[in-house]
Design brief:
- The protein has 92 residues and is α+β, with helices and mostly antiparallel strands.
- It has one domain (4-91): Phosphatidylinositol 3-kinase Catalytic Subunit, Chain A, domain 1 (Ubiquitin-like (UB roll)).
- Helix content is 24%, strand content 26%.
- It has 2 helices and 4 strands.
Length: 92
């Protein structure tokens, strides 16, 4: 098993998708904050970083529109099969 997972993350403010290699050791909350900070620097005219940011499933499985548990680790979600390379998420 690798130590990162490749996620496709859509930013509703721009309607664009971005790819992130996320370390498995991070919690969902930490990963969301990290992605939010990165996108705020690359899309500063359209997006401002926030500590109150969440990740939501865009794929049909496990549950389209379902929010990821912010306290869960990325590793645990990968081990459960809830996240795989290429999973589509939204940063909300």
């Amino acid at each position: 098993m690798t130590d990162k997972v490749l996620l496709s993350v859509t930013l509703p403010a721009t309607g664009r998708s971005y790819e992130f290699r996320v370390p498995l050791c991070l919690t969902v909350e930490a990963a969301a904050r990290l992605m939010s900070g990165i996108l705020a620097t690359t899309e500063s005219a359209l997006y401002e970083a926030s500590d109150d940011v969440d990740l939501m499933y865009l794929d049909e499985l496990p549950v389209r529109g379902g929010q990821l548990n912010p306290n869960e680790t990325i590793r645990a979600l990968v081990e459960q099969g809830a996240l795989v390379d290429g999973s589509h998420l939204a940063l909300v």
